[in-house]
Amino acid sequence: MKSIIMLLSVLIIFMTNPIKKGAKDIKLNKKYKVENTFSGNTSGEDSFHLIIAKNTSSKAYDIIPYHFKDGETIKLKTIPFDKEPSVLSFHNSSGKLSLITKSKEGKEEKIRVLDINLASGESKKSDSFSTDDFKAVIREKDKNILLYAKKEAITVVNALSATSTETIVVKPSKEAQEFFKSLSNNNIDAINTNEFVKNGSINDFRVYFEEGVLTLTQEDSKEGFTNAIQIPMDNNELTVDVKVFKNESLNGKIKKSTSYFSEDKLYQLKLRKEEAKLDVYSIGANTKATIDLLNAAFRKAVSDNNSAEKFLKNASKNANAPTVTINKTSIGDVKIRFDYVNKNSYNYRYNWWWHHNWMMQQMMWQQQQQIQMRASGFGPNPFEEIFFIKDEKSHFEIGLDLSGNIISPEGLETVYKDIDKKSYIEKLDDNKKLKHSSTVFTEKYFRYIAYNKTSKSFVIIEKPLND
User: Fold this and answer.
1) How many whole angstroms separate alpha carbon 460 and alpha carbon 285?
2) 3 state SS of 378
3) Residue 304, Ramachandran bin (φ over 0: left; ψ between -120 and 50: alpha; else beta)
4) What is the pLDDT of residues 59-70, one digit of tens each?
5) What global pTM score does this model have?
6) How far is CA 326 from CA 120, 204, 322, 415, in A?
7) Which of 96, 319, 353, 365 has its CA 20 to 30 A from that of 165?
8) Rounded distance, CA 106 to CA 87, Å?
9) What pLDDT, in 10s, does the model give residues 351-403?
10) Which tens digit of pLDDT belongs to each residue from 79-101?
11) Handedness of CA 186, 159, 90, 327 (dihedral sign)
């Protein structure tokens, strides 16, 4: 009888405290001082997780990689660096994980492609690339594109692997020289079109990659026009011209403007005090269609007839900036998403959840520096939000069919899911028993690696997505 009671007790404990799939303690050698972690996708539902730590014995910095495959955690071979490396991006191809790393070599920072064979654990580093004039990295599933810009030329490095890179040199036409000069002096946001996009960039310069073509755009929100150049990736050297997209359909001075590029179309949003219009330019065909956000047809396509008026009122405020993004649907139509963000706190970063832990560490470091500055009477508010956008719902959507007609967005299923990644990560941040966390989202799971202060070990845990 006592045995039966004990068995029932064990079963009750097991049922009320189920083992979390993927949970496995990872204990590091005492010689390691952990600096950072990084997580990302491999194939299917699998993922990789990196622990970046200083080896106090060798004085080097080691990347300690783990492959989470079919629910099992597999440790791969450690990869040493002389100085602390950071991971800018990654991609996968034929069982090989390629990391785009950056670390100091001598007095300069260098970029290298690091290949890791996920079966054998063997790794290989590419020759180094300079960080001089480096502007952005554009991540694709099977490659990364490094973008460099000088006023005389744009250099594009197509990084397929540590042993396979291609370089394209792009020179400006006479009309494009000013575009190149401005780009060389400014930052650029790489827009990820391979996921659901909530908000676009509010930076002047943006770069998109679709169908083998890089498209770079430059916004002039005061004048309400967009400059664009396109770089096909099938030439080693070429000269490009600049296209200017400007519409005078609004009566009077533009108050705010922005744009988004998708499938050879430039969607340009312009706002005035009592007007809001979206111009849709077909770049290849040189055609344009205009959508009036305040007319009757538009009102019928949204659940709240006053959505556009509310949006116009809030997006036009001095502290805010409008955004427009395009999300493809499974039947070929598109969902157009209108929103606004606080321009003083918003920062577009499409891969923010991969770099979550790194970003939080940087913020903490910046806050410490700013607190010290404020103690001396200098510096801004150290607790100004620079990472997440506002919580309240401020967006609205419309649908656009293949013929360019406005349709209801209800029932339109986007190719990529709209997952509230922030909510998952905030719960992780609230767990004070964990630190050094980094996260990754698959189609079905939210997964993370983190150091558990209680067990004094790392653990990889996954939870089903409920969205």
Assistant:
1) 50
2) coil
3) beta
4) 999 999 999 999
5) 0.86
6) 41, 18, 14, 11
7) 353
8) 19
9) 444 445 445 444 444 444 444 444 444 433 332 333 333 445 678 899 999 88
10) 999 999 999 999 999 999 999 99
11) positive
